[in-house]
Amino acid sequence: MKRLILTLIFITNFAHSAPNCKSEKKIGIGGNWPPYITYKDDVPSGVDIAITKLVFAEAKICIQFLRLPSSARGLVELYKGFVDVLPSASFNIERAQNAHFTVPYRRERMRLFTRLDLPPIKSLTELFADEFTFVTNPGAYYGEELKQILQISWYRQRLVEVSSASRRMELVNKKRIDFLIEDEYSGYYYINRLGYDGLRLHSYIVNDNAIHFMLSRTNFSKKEIQAVNNAIRTLEPKINKILKAAQPEGFR
């Protein structure tokens, strides 16, 4: 009972009905992560919210958005069956053992944001070996290269995890941390909004991968999975239009 109370403290419910919906699913979403998720008066909006509404309406599935404290918490709640869907999910084998993945609906590139003026590198290991420090989002996936690097305990000590995107940016802007590993759209958004003109984008691409919806293995039928996949394919032109409109100023 105590754990249930603690869970509910961090969750806010936002219902969204699709016309003629055949079922209802709970969509787990995290905190502010513009341009993908933003809140105004506790109501979520943003790129991933718009795409999620569009796709599940097309699939005739009603949804409720449940706000969770972090990406890591979202995975826990999906695996337990408390939530049915996680948007903005990168594929890896461990996750695929616990959830279904839809066809991709967009791509994500994780980049290095820093105040340092450094030459190009051939691998991320070079920066860890030079004793630079890094900040990331707990529960997010940054690719196999970083995953392998963090198997080494000495390198693992060079990285800290912070849930708030604005706080991650602030740590790098104030030179308390050397590098932020962040989605390039989100990084540019914060640079523009917060006026962090001293932050620059390093040329190295940490990870470039497809983004999917993760679906609960226990709460989705094969027919529902097919309906969501068909909706993503049908809506590709509209999804691309949403993504293009969200490109932040200065993006390249």
List the helices and strands and how they pair.
Blueprint: H1 2-9, E1 13-16, E2 23-29, E3 38-40, E4 43-45, H2 47-58, E5 61-67, H3 71-80, E6 85-90, H4 93-96, E7 99-101, E8 106-114, H5 125-129, E9 134-136, H6 144-149, H7 153-156, E10 159-161, H8 165-173, E11 179-183, H9 184-194, E12 200-216, H10 222-234, H11 236-245
Signal peptide: 1-17
Pfam families: SBP_bac_3
Keywords: Signal
What does this structure look like?
The chain is of the alpha/beta class. It has 2 domains: 2-107 and 209-245, D-Maltodextrin-Binding Protein, domain 2 (3-Layer(aba) Sandwich); 108-208, 3-Layer(aba) Sandwich (D-Maltodextrin-Binding Protein, domain 2), CATH 3.40.190. Helices cover 37% and strands 28% of the residues. Strands 6, 7, 8, 9, 10, 11 and 12 form a 7-stranded mixed sheet that branches. A 3-stranded mixed sheet has the order 1-5-2. Strands 3-4 form a two-stranded antiparallel sheet.
